[in-house]
Amino acid sequence: MSDQEPSSSQEPSKTLAQRAPEVAGNVLRQILEFAIDGNMTIPGAKDAAARSLQTRGDHEAAVDWLIRQHVGLAGAQGFLTNLGGLLALPVALPTNLAGLAIIQMRMIAAIAHLRGYDVNDRRVRSALTLAMLGEDEVRKQVSSGKLASTPMGIATAPVFDPALEHSVSERVFGGLGAKMAGKHVVVQVAKRIPLVGGGVGAAADGYFTYALGQYARREFIRRRG
Known about the structure:
Blueprint: H1 5-37, H2 45-56, H3 59-75, H4 77-80, H5 95-114, H6 122-131, H7 135-143, H8 151-155, H9 162-190, H10 199-219
Helix pairs in contact: 1-5, 1-9, 2-3, 2-5, 3-5, 3-10, 5-6, 5-10, 6-9, 9-10
């Protein structure tokens, strides 16, 4: 009897570990679908890209506008917590983090769409998700062998790799949590400084969004003629 106790006590943790990629994938899939498709009040990535191109008349100018627009949205804390339909979105993330992830994913997807990528392709969707880690973290993960390729490599791969998608989802989901924890520390420190208050959180969100936009611009090279 005593010989069997360790194995039975390890079963629950083993099951949770096995389910981690699935849980992360489901959460990020919901965020990605919301970002790409939008809803009645928030246009999706394709619509945002089309409007930007129509307004600016040039693909690169449209990318510039998309980045500026989403940096502004990321800095608007009230907007993040009041996205239409966001509160009904069953994602296991704090509202602010889910809202910021949607805005950043929408921006990245819109840039990729403008550059000629099919955002409905599962390879491209895995690449969009991976881009959320940011350039430095992606480079680190690829160099260490924890990930096989960059967003560009995944988007243009000859076939879709479900195992890679699971790995990407798990690492990006963990990265979002780490990013929120780091931001929380910065905001708490800033609150102790006179004349510096809640604007630090908005500035941090805007800065991270700008950095992701520039990374997406470099990573998703133009495929349109």
